Request: fold
Amino acid sequence: MLVALGFLMVATFMALIMTKRMTPLLALIIVPTVFGLFAGAGLGLGDMVMDAVKSMSGTAALLMFAIMYFGIMIDVGLFDKLVDGILKLVGNDPAKVVMGTAVLTGLISLDGDGSTTFIVVTAALLPIYHRLGMSPVVLTCVAGLTNGTLNIVPWGGPTARAAAALHVDASEIFVPMIPALAVGLIVVFGFAWTMGVSERKRLQREDPLRWGPGSVMTEGTGGTGGTSGSRKTPAGGRGVALLDKVAVRGDGTESATMDGTVLDPTRPTLRPKLFWFNLSMTVAIFVLLIADVLPLSYLFMIGTAVALLVNFPKISDQAKMISSHASSVIAVVSMVLAAAVLTGVLSGTGMVDAMSTWLVDVIPTTMGPYLAILTGIISIPATFFMSNDAFYFGILPVLTEAGAHYGIGAVDMARASITGQPVHMQSPLVPAILLLVSMSKVDLGDHHKKVLWRAAIVAIVMLAVGVLTGAIGIG
Reply:
């Protein structure tokens, strides 16, 4: 009964948000409440949900102050040079912009924290997507795929949990999986390129005056009919359109590329004289983040306070800066706290435990020698439907114990278990993905339609390469 209710609850939630019958925020609250009542929780639902809210309060605080901190850094101009550099590399070509998204996300994902990665990526690239007329769903898809694939780094959560649950060394899990990770990233970059080319063709089809052959926006993009250098570059010959901070419209008018965006070069919040201070402080925060010497939420609290004090000494300016980021904070934190309803009901009613036991019981004994492969396959949906903690500390030890009877080592099971992370990172139970879609103003259902099947392919490819290279053994 609990197994059926658990899977039906998650399926109902997914159906409602993907068909846009209900917003994710409402679905996260209403659907678990209804199914919790069906499960017989009654008035005990309140305690279940509040216990989950308490456990997620640290995450909510982290996201709240991380959004404020990076928002302030965007306002004062810390990332302007980064965006300029990206523009010079990718030019006007949507395909190159999408590839740049994958590369930038991959580099920042090495810190092991999805939230800060998505904040920086959206801050740097979302204005470019908007200015070119590209779909922000492509940004969330590529960023989510890249970050999910790199989520298996040993200092990341899944590998550390698998190591702790099975009492093996994290590096012993990760190092043999490097070939699988490399191939997974190649597949991600392949998806990024095809989505970029698709965006380029869509723009050419929908706005031929701006993107057609020979137009300013297609010069130097390759394969679009334009010939680089065939048109006189504006403003002193520093480059075409975006490289020159000028967008040429179909009607012949021009406007500053970043005008009206968070990276408007004339915004009054710019603090160029404090650039090196802000950069040093941000680098210091990342160093402390990796060193894990302070709780992340407290680290960003301090960073936000210092950033406001130094960049905006006047109390009135501080109040304006805080209020200017209130909408972003509310959108993300409310989603995280709403997700606590789903996780609270799943764990409080015993649905997670029942689902875990059922998954183990349905595996036929004849499939025992292939239990590591099955674990990898199971990890794809399981880590989407439940938290990493529930899977790695609940399901994985039981599967590993069963695998030991067939001569499958714990480290093989651990390696297989982390291959589902590209799909896991798209789960509404992951605060970072809620942050990404909220900051990009993308509907979670639209994100899932584009990303889930691609993430599943990446996960399966990583599992297959792990088996072929011998990193994941067969009994």
Q: What stands out?
A: The two ends are 33 Å apart (CA to CA).
